[in-house]
Amino acid sequence: MPRNEKSSVDGRAHGRRIVTGKGTTLPKWLREEITRVTRKERLEETLYLLDSGTDAFASGRYRKAFALLLKTKALSPRAVAVRELLGLSAYRAGMWKEALAELRTYRRLTGDTVHMPVEMDSLRALHRDADVSKVWSELQELGGRPATLKEARVVYASFLIDNQRLPEAWNVINPKKLVESPFEEDLRQWFVAARTAALLGDRETASRLLKAVERHDPSMPGLDELKASIPGI
Fold this sequence. Notes:
This protein is mainly alpha-helical.
């Protein structure tokens, strides 16, 4: 399980979904990408291993996925999609150092900041506190997609809560306003904001945020525990 249970990551390359479900063949764009960077005599085995690895990832067998994708990387080390999914498999399996190494390589090769929240969460798990803050600052400078920035707020605020830095956590996670049609990352931000407000003793704000999350996703993990932490709910 990911250290940050509110974070949701899947296999994406430049915004395109890699993992679509068990038994799904690789999409055309991915096959073409692998073909461009893989030696011809290695191509068939590379595609087979990548297909098996994506199936394992999609079905939640993250250590199996990691093992298959590690073999894939050995055959095609320049394939950024392989590096990406390998890093995400390691993250889901709780292999923090491996996740960090692969996702940093992915970022270096592509310039894409999409997995910087996962980098932060891996550093958080490794108790590398200064580096968590460093990556957070780097992401603020580099920028990213709205979903990426929201996920980063979730991770960094959770890190600040861990370190009893509650006012700072609130400044990071405060959603300012609640939209009518939230995305999953919005709900995760609201959840951590509700938790932060509760820890700060702001029962009214915590209750409002909790009810907003519950209205859109009543089965979100952790809701009952959070509700129990807010008096009078």
